[in-house]
């Protein structure tokens, strides 16, 4: 198996090292793991692409490349240049330092990398590690992802919906709970949820020279969330798996809106 890995924390991030170990185990002795990851941290860029300027790419080692761009740029670079002669069988994005469940999905560059792979017709999975007090004291805060990731990805490859004839191909979002590997209670297939009362905002800051800046700030990651959602599962020490697609249409609203606007 040929596996492409990327992330949004940057090519030197420890989560990418964990993902390399996961991918190496999955690929097997006859397989290949290719890395095309951002040269610098790209957290919060979502599915952004560098459309108005070129992307510098540099070879850092065998099958290892750094691109001065977003995770989506990295996937495009791999498909259109680095791996163009033999495309990957699977794209893995992560392991993100911090969860990408709930509303975080909409901002995540980790999700953006997996989404771009899906748009390109490739099987893709995003992986993120929830952080908290119980992971802070671990020698390896990515332990849950590193231990449980290979098994879960194999199960998804066997049982997931990987059909490519639909308008928008599915990809999968995996979030590991904020505990060690032994503390994981199991896996829950869950929809994307929402933390109650949590919004992104800005915090004003004055620099020593008097200039005014704004820091973008997130909300509590332990706030109560939609029952039986990805966030809820993670907070109860379950791995969450959420099938996703790059389609923001609210299909439930189409019929009523059509009747109101087209038949009136």
TrEMBL record:
Enzyme nomenclature, EC number: 3.1.3.5
Record field: catalytic activity: a ribonucleoside 5'-phosphate + H2O = a ribonucleoside + phosphate
Segments forming domain Survival protein SurE-like phosphatase/nucleotidase: 3-196
Cofactor binding notes: Binds 1 divalent metal cation per subunit.
GO molecular function: 3'-nucleotidase activity; 5'-nucleotidase activity; exopolyphosphatase activity; metal ion binding; nucleotide binding
Keyword match Phosphoprotein: no
Family: Belongs to the SurE nucleotidase family.
Identification of the protein by name: 5'-nucleotidase SurE
Gene, per the UniProt record: surE
């Amino acid at each position: 198996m040929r596996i492409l890995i990327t992330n949004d924390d940057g090519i030197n991030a420890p989560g990418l090292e964990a993902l390399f170990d996961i991918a190496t185990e999955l690929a097997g002795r006859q397989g290949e793991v290719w890395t095309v990851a951002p040269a610098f941290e790209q957290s919060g860029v979502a599915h952004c692409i560098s459309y108005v300027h070129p992307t510098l790419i540099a070879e850092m080692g065998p099958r290892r490349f750094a691109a001065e761009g977003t995770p989506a740029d990295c996937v495009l670079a791999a498909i259109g240049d680095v791996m163009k002669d033999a495309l990957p069988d699977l794209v893995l994005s992560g392991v993100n330092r911090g969860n990408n469940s709930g509303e975080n999905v909409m901002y995540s560059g980790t999700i953006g990398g997996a989404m771009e792979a899906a748009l390109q017709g490739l099987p893709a999975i995003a992986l993120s590690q929830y952080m908290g007090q119980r992971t802070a004291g671990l020698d390896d805060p990515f332990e849950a992802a590193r231990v449980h990731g290979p098994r879960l990805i194999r199960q998804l490859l066997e049982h997931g919906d990987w059909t490519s004839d639909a308008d928008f191909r599915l990809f999968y979002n995996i979030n590991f709970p904020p505990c060690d590997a032994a503390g994981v209670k199991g896996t829950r297939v869950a929809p994307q949820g929402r933390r109650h009362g949590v919004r992104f905002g800005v915090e004003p800051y004055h620099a020593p020279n008097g200039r005014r800046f704004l820091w973008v700030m997130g909300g509590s990651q332990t706030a109560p969330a939609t029952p039986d959602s990805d966030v809820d599962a993670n907070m109860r020490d379950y791995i969450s798996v959420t099938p996703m697609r790059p389609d923001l249409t609210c299909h439930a609203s189409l019929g009523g809106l059509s009747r109101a606007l087209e038949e009136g």
